[in-house]
Amino acid sequence: MRIVIAEDDALLREGLALLLRAESLEVVATADDPGTFLDAVDAGEPDVAIVDVRMPPTHTDEGIKAAVEARRRRPGLAVLVLSAYVEQAFATDLLAQGSARLGYLLKERVGRVEEFLDALHRVARGGTAIDPEVVAQLLARTRPDDRLRRLSPRERDVLALMAEGLGNAAIAERLVVTDGAVHKHIRSIFAKLDLPPTDRADRRVAAVLHYLDDARRRA
């Protein structure tokens, strides 16, 4: 796996590089600004880019814009975005074109090495990894009278784990239920939300996030 890191905090940038190299992953370049990052994507032909949301010069959305441009230049590039705190609009904007090979994590998750590496490998394989805190805030900010009220407490638990990018087996393990029970809950969730059911994790996560974003915009 070839990786490019775009992070303007030198300590975090070098720490990430050391961590990944210790895991026998190839860090082909590191960058501290969007321009250098995009040059590295062009030259290094990475499989995955790890990108900070806020980068120079304004430290607003340069990282998000660079990530979108990197995916345009290199179709199929997996992107794992890091943010210091939940920036809901940035998360949904980045996901607007689809969620395959895409992750959005809080930086504090990097300190939980096993979780961070799991997310990295998941997006590299074509999946999705959304920070649980992002999912929780999206759920919390929807209107109380929207379609989410149709869901049972267990279905809401399953929905949150789906939005994180977990597959059926992982959800079953997390909730200590059978795969069959998870499949039944998912069918019910999609029926109640008026969304077509599917077994493809990336498509169902995208559907959930688009629905939640629509609810956020209406709130």
UniProtKB/TrEMBL annotation:
Residues of the signal peptide: none
InterPro entries: CheY-like_superfamily, NreC/VraR/RcsB-like_REC, Sig_transdc_resp-reg_C-effctor, Sig_transdc_resp-reg_receiver, Tscrpt_reg_LuxR_C, WalR-like, WH-like_DNA-bd_sf
Pfam families: GerE, Response_reg
Domain spans labelled HTH luxR-type: 144-215
SUPFAM superfamilies for the chain: C-terminal effector domain of the bipartite response regulators, CheY-like
GO biological process: phosphorelay signal transduction system; regulation of DNA-templated transcription
Domain Response regulatory: 2-122
Residues bearing the modification 4-aspartylphosphate: 52
Molecular functions per Gene Ontology: DNA binding
Keyword line: DNA-binding, Phosphoprotein, Transcription, Transcription regulation
Protein name: DNA-binding NarL/FixJ family response regulator
Organism expressing this protein natively: Streptomyces calvus
High-level lineage: Bacteria, Bacillati, Actinomycetota, Actinomycetes, Kitasatosporales
